[in-house]
């Protein structure tokens, strides 16, 4: 199966085909994203919040990212897999960044990495690109710097900040980034940036004029109920469905309607009698209960056989 490459992603941008990108943190989610033909899967450090239960992405480690990325890559199919470089893995200089990015690629088999920051990360992006490691940039609201921003706030609202973000995007393009995420910035600004650089822009809370969009899977499926970001549309309340299912499971366990004959396994009467003869102290009530379920099973088999004969 041919993987989506950074060339394919660039071609989508050049042809005006909107690029869908979604987060995934495990094998089943990656399989579903791949089956849905999502071009890019992001193993985001958001796993710290929606999977590991942290209050931010800052506690996430390289080992955390590698552990989850391995599972995602195994289920990714043709989807391009990009892995977030977590806080502390690249801020100390491009040498550490190169070493850590190499480790992520070697141990996970992913296709690229993502680094937050504009001009401050440009040299790192350049060094990694020169070493053959594809890098996706990320500007605007960069969650790893949330403490510096004073919270999850829209960025680029003033002329000075907007011009700075446009410059950041251009620097990342010049440094060799193959795409750049624009997070929580005004629609007009994201359009200006998208028009001024030739690499794809991937928006999250940046309006409809980017080359593509990225969302956290748990947000769009209603699986994370601590808060619902304004930029996230809940396409289906899967979390509500799961909760209802779990409650029904608990109810059926409590009223002993599960497991039934359909979910149980049996032995024939002769084997059961032999066991009873060897265990004279076997509780009669228990033995009778087993026999009743066995009879229920035989009745079920008979009904299935009768149905099959009718169908034949």
User: Mean of residue pLDDT?
Assistant: 89
CATH homolog superfamily of the largest domain: Phosphoenolpyruvate-binding domains
Strand content: 5-15%
Number of domains: 2
The ordered H/E elements are: HEHEHHEHEHEHHEHEEHHHH
Helix content: 40-55%
CATH top level class name of the largest domain = Alpha Beta
CA radius of gyration: 27 Å
Count of DSSP strands: 8
Give me the side-by-side strand order of the main sheet. Answer: 1-2-3-4-5-6-7-8
Walkthrough of the structure:
This protein has 312 residues and is α/β, with parallel strands linked by helices. The protein folds into 2 domains: 6-242, Phosphoenolpyruvate-binding domains (TIM Barrel, Alpha-Beta Barrel), CATH 3.20.20; 259-311, no CATH class. Helix content is 48%, strand content 12%. The chain has 13 helices and 8 strands. Strands 1-2-3-4-5-6-7-8 form an 8-stranded parallel barrel, surrounded by 7 helices. Helix 5 (94-108) links the parallel strand 3 and strand 4 (112-116). Helix 2 (27-35) packs across helix 4. The longest helix is centred in the last third of the chain and has 28 residues, at 284-311. The protein is elongated, with a radius of gyration of 27 Å. Mean pLDDT is 89; it is low at 301-305.
